[in-house]
Amino acid sequence: MNPRGLLASASINIGLALVVLILFSILKKQPSNAPIYYPRPLSKRHPITILPPDPFSPSRFLPCFSWIPRAFRVTEDEILEASGLDALVVIRLFKFGINFFAVCSLIGLLILLPINYGGQNDPSTSYHSMDTCTISNIKKGSNMLWVHVLCLWFISFYGLYLLYKEYSEILVKRIQKLRNLRDRPDQFTILVRQIPFCTEHKALGCCVHHFFSKYHPYSYHSYQMLYDGKDIEDLLNQAKHVQRKIQDLRKKCTVKKHNGEMLLLDECLDESMKAALLEEKLQELCHKIRQLQSEDMLKERELPVAFVTFKSRWGAALAVQTQQHTNPLLWITGTAPEPSDVSWRNLAIQYKFLPLHKIGVILAASLLTVFFAVPVTAVQGIAKFEKLKKWFPPAMPIQLIPGLSSVVTGYLPSAILKGFIYIFPFAMLAMAKVGGSISKSKEEIKACNMVFYFLVGNVFFLSLISGSLLDEIGESFSHPKNLPSHLASLVSSQADFFMTYILTDGFSGFSLEVLQPGLLLWDLIKSHTYCRGKEKDLYLCSLQYFRIIPTVSLSILIGIVYAVIAPLLLPFLLVYFYIGYAVYINQIQDVYNTVYDTFGQFWPFIHHYIFVAIIFMQITMIGLFGLKLKPAASISTISLVLLTIMFNEYCKIRFLPTFQGYPIQNAVENDELDQKGGQMEASYGKAVGAYRQPCLRPVSFTQSESDLTQPLITSL
């Protein structure tokens, strides 16, 4: 890629970002778009003071970027209080990027860049635009490489320091959050699987009661069995569908007032008859649902799974962390997720089949990763247009149009790659949902892992390999002795491509995230078709951790790997994290809803992703120092790798267990606080009915059923 390609990519991305942000600042002021841009405050009945009160006010159509400085004024405590620790973890990820790459940019621009640029006397013969600014421009055996070694050590230790600092601070916030939300049902409840069948009473429930009454006599309180409720769920869905039809018919049947009296309209006659039939059908469905929810019917649908509630947090924590039976495959206990976080369908999967589900997910993800190699290789083919035009003559006419080849090689590859990447996380989440996870948060964590390693393998490494293969086709056969030196510049030769990727992901990607073009288009279609004249629904959804965390972690990995190799990339990453920080503060406050809060359980995985990035940087530098004929530098870097691995193992021992469980010390301390305040019974009392399956809760068609006693229309 030549410098014109980089300039074209930067110009297109920055220009597109400005246009999109201007459009967003205007559209968010329109009251009709409030369900898209303010669903969170509207769902909480909070007033929106940003919207102009006058619909004809000129300020409604003037761009305004006040939301950006407002985002930087939001404190962490405000995010923690309003959206939970998981949302704050996402913001802390962006803060890590800002803090880390601010220091790396100073080192890279003030120390490494001048050294790289003046690294050799002969002008570079490489066609790569960034080679003169990278470590590949340093002479082999040059003592200036020791400066890179020192910078590598400093950057590594600074990154590890930030990781330790973030881990310890988030751990403190987790413990504080557990104390502040002491009445959450999951602190008193555990999940029990593989419950043996009671042959005496021909049931599973009595077995649960007998077991925990005997072995946990002082702390056990009650249990809630799980049932196979597929038939009930189907009937509930039918009842909801019928209820919606009745409501639509009532809205269609307009009633006008005349002299203070209600008059019957002719067009309501058919709707009245249809509604009466639907009301009868709804009553029948409700009756069937209540029958299936009866105790006698549910006994036949018991699953070997139960939520067991204890009278204290200490009792629940102790039961989770101990083996319950001599056969470890019976009475398997685990931490209960938050009630709103439970994945009820996956709990119905038999425990012995869970390995098959997990293997199936791994195979499906692997196949998808392999197939994705095709578009990544094609993208690199576009980026290496200078080489391809020699082997594919039909592509040569593109060069005849001024500036088009720069756009094709500079902007198009990263834009296409970003488009494919946007689709992939949703496919991985769909796979994770069938993997047997007991909660939505664990599904998203599993999807995070799959997406991150997919991005590392397919986007990062495959881009490097496929980018070099196009060059090697000619070089390796004509000059086979030069192959090692050619591979030495492999990483630096792709620095320009990853710079365009960061530009596209940061400027275009974040601006489109805040604009929500898909929801705008969908809302426009609904408003002019089947939802015309109806009240708009709020487009309220949860924060998509499975999409945000891996993508941002990949950008951190790219930045860390290139921190010493190509320091010119670092300022772009700094801008990337500043933009992302402002965008997601806005989205968390106004758009995304908090469905669950795991109290920061996403952070250990983020810590691991950044650790992997630091290890990749160090291993890459070992290879580069070796190819630059500096074996002493490679040996010193090996010791750095060992120190980094030891640090990660220490973090696993020091922090990870507290994120995976509920420490007995904290459980007892919180119990003592409740006992002093006389709130213990009220706290664990909330957990008793919190884990009742949604399909077993009383049928709540009260609005519709109250309307059943009233005529559809009134007349005299």
UniProtKB/TrEMBL annotation:
<keyword id="KW-0472">Membrane</keyword>
<dbReference type="InterPro" id="IPR032880">
    <property type="entry name" value="CSC1/OSCA1-like_N"/>
</dbReference>
<keyword id="KW-0407">Ion channel</keyword>
<feature type="coiled-coil region">
    <location>
        <begin position="232"/>
        <end position="295"/>
    </location>
</feature>
<dbReference type="Pfam" id="PF14703">
    <property type="entry name" value="PHM7_cyt"/>
</dbReference>
<keyword id="KW-0812">Transmembrane</keyword>
<dbReference type="GO" id="GO:0005227">
    <property type="term" value="F:calcium-activated cation channel activity"/>
</dbReference>
<keyword id="KW-0406">Ion transport</keyword>
<protein>
    <submittedName>
        <fullName>CSC1-like protein At3g54510</fullName>
    </submittedName>
</protein>
<dbReference type="GO" id="GO:0005886">
    <property type="term" value="C:plasma membrane"/>
</dbReference>
<dbReference type="InterPro" id="IPR045122">
    <property type="entry name" value="Csc1-like"/>
</dbReference>
<keyword id="KW-0813">Transport</keyword>
<dbReference type="InterPro" id="IPR003864">
    <property type="entry name" value="CSC1/OSCA1-like_7TM"/>
</dbReference>
<dbReference type="Pfam" id="PF13967">
    <property type="entry name" value="RSN1_TM"/>
</dbReference>
<feature type="transmembrane region" description="Helical">
    <location>
        <begin position="545"/>
        <end position="562"/>
    </location>
</feature>
<dbReference type="Pfam" id="PF02714">
    <property type="entry name" value="RSN1_7TM"/>
</dbReference>
<feature type="transmembrane region" description="Helical">
    <location>
        <begin position="403"/>
        <end position="429"/>
    </location>
</feature>
<keyword id="KW-0106">Calcium</keyword>
<feature type="transmembrane region" description="Helical">
    <location>
        <begin position="359"/>
        <end position="383"/>
    </location>
</feature>
<comment type="similarity">
    <text>Belongs to the CSC1 (TC 1.A.17) family.</text>
</comment>
<feature type="transmembrane region" description="Helical">
    <location>
        <begin position="568"/>
        <end position="585"/>
    </location>
</feature>
<feature type="transmembrane region" description="Helical">
    <location>
        <begin position="606"/>
        <end position="627"/>
    </location>
</feature>
<dbReference type="InterPro" id="IPR027815">
    <property type="entry name" value="CSC1/OSCA1-like_cyt"/>
</dbReference>
<keyword id="KW-0175">Coiled coil</keyword>
<feature type="transmembrane region" description="Helical">
    <location>
        <begin position="450"/>
        <end position="470"/>
    </location>
</feature>
<feature type="transmembrane region" description="Helical">
    <location>
        <begin position="145"/>
        <end position="164"/>
    </location>
</feature>
<feature type="domain" description="CSC1/OSCA1-like N-terminal transmembrane">
    <location>
        <begin position="6"/>
        <end position="166"/>
    </location>
</feature>
<feature type="domain" description="CSC1/OSCA1-like 7TM region">
    <location>
        <begin position="358"/>
        <end position="625"/>
    </location>
</feature>
<feature type="domain" description="CSC1/OSCA1-like cytosolic">
    <location>
        <begin position="187"/>
        <end position="346"/>
    </location>
</feature>
<feature type="transmembrane region" description="Helical">
    <location>
        <begin position="6"/>
        <end position="27"/>
    </location>
</feature>
<keyword id="KW-1133">Transmembrane helix</keyword>
<feature type="transmembrane region" description="Helical">
    <location>
        <begin position="96"/>
        <end position="117"/>
    </location>
</feature>
